[in-house]
Amino acid sequence: MNAATEIAPVISADNTALRRDFPLKPFAIHHKLAGHPLLSLQRIAQLAAELPRDLIEYNSGKVAISQDPDAIPSVDLDPVEVVKRIETAGAWMVLKRVENSPAYRELLEDALLSVARARGFNSLLDAGFEQVEGFVFVSSPNSTTPFHLDSEDNFFVISTARSFSPFSTTTIAASSPTTRSSAR
Questions:
Q1: What is the pTM of this model?
Q2: Helix (H) or strand (E) holding 151
């Protein structure tokens, strides 16, 4: 844990929402990550150079939200160039398992400790954060990531104007074909 976390949490939210909704429903958070050196494009490009290629996924962002995942066009750039040219690359990228980098692990743990403390816990383990994994997403302006379901809990930290549509597990379950057919 870095000393800054003891003074001010990295992530904060209405404690009632944190206790009631996390991790089952989306809710607004506030963060102190804007301008963080590890989240600069230069440092993310360095991370892309350090990570094994199988932990990096990137594709064209010029697709429909309903795009077939098996038919997404690729981008003819290496991962470092995608990050360096993200403003014009027309792409989206995810860097997976960034907790393998000690600096990113510390950032993740500091952010999650903020959440744990706001929920009344003194440690990550007490809060049930047993498997800390981090993913960094980068996308070009006006890019679309096709609809998909993530099995993990997510905090979206948006550094520029962007829109996205999170769905709660209740929404997804209520709209699934199995639920609709069994409700008839």
A1: 0.76
A2: none
* 154-168 per-position pLDDT tens digit: 555 555 555 555 555
- Provide the b/e sequence for 61-95 (b: ≥16 CB within 10 Å): bbbeeebeeeebeebeeebbebbbbbeebbbbbbb
Q: Greatest CA span in the chain, whole angstroms?
A: 56
99-125: per-residue pLDDT in tens?
A: 999 999 999 999 889 888 888 899 999
| Alpha carbon distance 14, 27 (integer Å) | 9
* Alpha-carbon distances of 144 from 4, 46, 104, 152, 160, rounded to whole Å: 35, 24, 26, 20, 15
147 φ/ψ angles, rounded to the nearest 5 degrees: -55, 135
Radius of gyration of the chain (CA): 18
Token pair for residue 141?
Answer: 């302006």
- The H-or-E segment that residue 92 falls in is strand 91-95
